Amino acid sequence: MIGKIIAALVATAIFLMIIFWVISGGPAKVISAAKSQPDIISSLLNGSLIPKLFSIKLPWQDSVSIPGAADISQYTSDNSGGVGGTGYSQEQIDQARNFGMPSPYRSQVTLQEGRATENNPSKEYVAVTASRDNEGAVDITGWSVQSAVSGERYYLPPAASAFIGGAVNSTGSVTLEPGATAIITSGVSPVGVSFHENICSGYLGKLQAFYPSLDFSVCPDPSKVFPETPENLRTYGSSCLDYVRNLSSCEFPQDLPTSLSPACRSYVTNTFSYNGCVHLHQNESSFLHNSWRLFINAQRSIWDDRHDIIRLLDAKGRTVDAVTY
């Protein structure tokens, strides 16, 4: 009997709860809530949910995947609705995608193709140049170059500001003064490190192959290094003066004549070399050039031999410039 009474009470309570739920608008609330939620089953069936779950964007795609992002604003509308009614042609959209998110350094530093189509990493290079209109130097430390085709990205290395041969060189930031250029070679440095070029760098090109070649014409004139003075004539002799006058810029003396005095032979050997040149001229205002040699140290060619899109990215991954070939 007690069990029947309890069952009746429970049934009555449930019935009253249902009546209260209906009166308070329960069914309408359920329908409204259901409409506000995504139809997961439908999304799975039509495939629209999978791209949302597994879509992956490359670093440069965040703001240029579709017109309306920051980079697209540089283009003017074609007044015809464009692709998908965006106001931009497919060519304009592709150009924006290829370029990527623009850097505030855009137009301050430009990228040149160089010889990106070489398949030898020692000869393959691109170049970056700072505009002569810049108000000051641009620090490109932490910048990188990237193929928009393969997605591979390579960071620019630090460099020695005053390279010394045969020594362990400390490296640091790379800054481009207005008009300065950095040659970025894919391969390994012939001297073991990236470096800031100077008036003595031509000596390095006599010993190792650089692409493009180092400039020999800016080396100090040997006759000016060893001028005709009474003191030099007394110390080294007239034969030494004649020998030096016949040396070319950045030329290493070889097979020194026996007619030269021991003092002359020692002076010539120690002076007319890369390190000797650096020792004599490193404190001069004209010692450093507006050029750097940077080496990625890759063991293979890093750019496509036929077609590629190469971006120069700043330290935050924004595109400074890009070249297409």
Explain what you see.
With 325 residues, the protein is of the alpha+beta class. It is elongated, with a radius of gyration of 35 Å. Helices cover 30% and strands 15% of the residues. Among the domains are: 44 residues, no CATH class; 129 residues, Lamin Tail domain (Immunoglobulin-like, Sandwich), CATH 2.60.40. The strands form 3 sheets. The chain has a 5-stranded mixed beta sheet, with no helix packed on it. A 4-stranded antiparallel beta sheet has the order 5-4-10-11, with no helix packed on it. A two-stranded antiparallel sheet has the order 3-6. α8 packs across α9. The longest helix has 22 residues.
Number of strands: 11
Q: What is the CATH architecture term of the domain at 109-199 and 287-324? A: Sandwich
The parts where pLDDT drops under 50 for at least 5 residues are 33-80
Percentage of residues in strands: 15-25%
The SS-based structural class is alpha+beta
The averaged pLDDT comes out at: 81
Shape: elongated
Question: Topology, please?
Answer:
Blueprint lengths: L1 H22 L2 H11 L3 H7 L2 H6 L35 H10 L9 E4 L12 E6 L7 E2 L4 E4 L5 E3 L19 E2 L4 E5 L9 E4 L3 H6 L14 H4 L4 H7 L1 H8 L16 H10 L2 H8 L6 E8 L13 E5 L5 E6 L1
Parallel strand pairs: 7-9
Antiparallel strand pairs: 1-2, 2-7, 3-6, 4-5, 4-10, 8-9, 10-11
Helix pairs in contact: 8-9
Task: Tag the structure with descriptive keywords.
325 residues; alpha+beta; Immunoglobulin-like; 5-stranded mixed β-sheet; 4-stranded antiparallel β-sheet; 15% strand
